[in-house]
Amino acid sequence: MVINYIPHGVCSRAFQIEVEDGVIRSVQVTGGCSGNLQGISALLRGMKVEEAISRMEGIRCGGKATSCPDQLARALKKAL
């Protein structure tokens, strides 16, 4: 399954997440902090969706109510 998600309240403009059998296979991010998001994407590869959600959900960026990791968690909830 491929999840296409438009994040809200963050610098990133789009996420494309490939999930197979409950495991994240790839994460592509358009926009945002390139180095940080490449690192997050690499760390998520091979991780179970539920674990990724529990690790990233609720993370905030500065004074914002959300963050790119939090938005990724919201996108992954679509896979459940």
How would you briefly describe this protein structure?
With 80 residues, the protein is α+β, with helices and mostly antiparallel strands.
Q: Which SSEs are present, and which pair or pack?
A:
Elements: E1 2-5, E2 12-20, E3 23-31, H1 34-44, H2 49-56, H3 68-77
Antiparallel strand pairs: 1-2, 2-3
Helix pairs in contact: 2-3
Written overview of the protein:
With 80 residues, this protein is α+β, with helices and mostly antiparallel strands. The protein has a single domain (2-77), classed as Enolase-like, domain 1, CATH 3.30.390. 36% of the residues lie in helices and 28% in strands. It has helices at 34-44, 49-56, 68-77, and strands spanning 2-5, 12-20, 23-31. A 3-stranded antiparallel beta sheet has the order 1-2-3. Strand 1 (2-5) and strand 2 form a beta hairpin. The mean pLDDT is 96.
Quote the CATH topology.
Answer: Enolase-like, domain 1
Specify the overall morphology. Answer: globular
User: Fraction of residues in helices?
Assistant: 25-40%
Kindly state the number of beta strands. Answer: 3
- Oligomerization state: single chain
How many strands, which pairing sense, and closed or not: the largest β-sheet? 3 strands, antiparallel
Judged by helices, strands and strand pairing, the structural class is: alpha+beta
- Sequence of strands across the biggest β-sheet: 1-2-3
Helical segment tally?
3
